[in-house]
From TrEMBL:
This is 4Fe-4S dicluster domain-containing protein. Keywords: 4Fe-4S, Electron transport, Iron, Iron-sulfur, Metal-binding, Repeat, Transport. It holds the Pfam family Fer4_4. SUPFAM superfamilies: 4Fe-4S ferredoxins. InterPro entries: 4Fe4S_Fe-S-bd, 4Fe4S_Fe_S_CS, ET_IronSulfur_Cluster-Binding. One of its GO terms (molecular function) is 4 iron, 4 sulfur cluster binding.
Length: 186
């Protein structure tokens, strides 16, 4: 089985936030904690201003800083599908992963004194069901699958410090947003 990850087609995303909210609800996350976030930006480039959106969760990086910096091995790469997973029972709540992830993906749970993050809805996928966020996207802007088929390009778009983790997320940028998206990441 190849490395799995998200594909986000920015030109299809309406910024509805459904992916973000269904994830939060189904994972029973407390106030302020999100495994997926949708951000909106205004592009003023050229003669065609517009608004574009970006939906990002954990990028299940190929060189994950969270794994490298966890002192107890609670963050690890799944051997089957290459996603980055978290063992709640091993986590000591030190937040080393929170500090080392360039994308703000790990969420510290004050109520549990552990960190948690997007697992790509591992249990659902084991049953042949798509991740909650993918199911929730009526625009079909989000998909999850084999990165050998979709490729990875977030690392190429992102600025150098962020791309050091080789994020396994493919972002199909909408044409008018592309240059502003890069400006924002820089
Ligand atoms: S996005 Fe952050 S938490 Fe997710 S694999 Fe990459 S470094 Fe780890
Ligand atoms: S795959 Fe699951 S846990 Fe990850 S962002 Fe989507 S709904 Fe949330
Ligand atoms: S559910 Fe789909 S269209 Fe709505 S914000 Fe998320 S990715 Fe964009």
């Amino acid at each position: 089985m190849g490395k799995k990850g998200f594909h986000f087609n920015q030109s299809l995303c309406s910024g509805c936030h459904s992916c973000m909210m269904v994830c939060k609800e189904n994972h029973h996350l407390p106030e302020g904690a999100f495994f997926r976030r949708v951000s909106s930006f205004v592009s003023e480039n050229g003669s065609k201003p517009g608004v574009f959106h970006l939906s990002l969760a954990c990028n299940h990086c190929m060189d994950p800083a969270c794994v490298a910096n966890c002192p107890v091995g609670a963050m690890y790469v799944d051997e089957e599908d290459g996603t980055v997973q978290h063992d709640d029972s091993a986590c000591i709540g030190c937040q080393s992963c929170v500090k080392s992830c360039p994308y703000g993906a790990p969420q510290y749970r004050v109520d549990l004194n552990i960190t948690q993050k997007c697992d790509g809805c591992y249990d659902l996928r084991a049953k042949g069901i798509e991740p909650d966020c993918v199911q929730a996207c009526l625009m079909r802007a989000l998909t999850f699958g084999d990165m050998e088929e979709t490729g990875t390009n977030l690392g190429k778009v992102a600025c150098a410090p962020e791309s050091t983790t080789s994020p396994a997320t493919y972002v199909d940028e909408s044409a008018y947003a592309a240059s502003s998206f890069r400006d924002w990441l820089m």
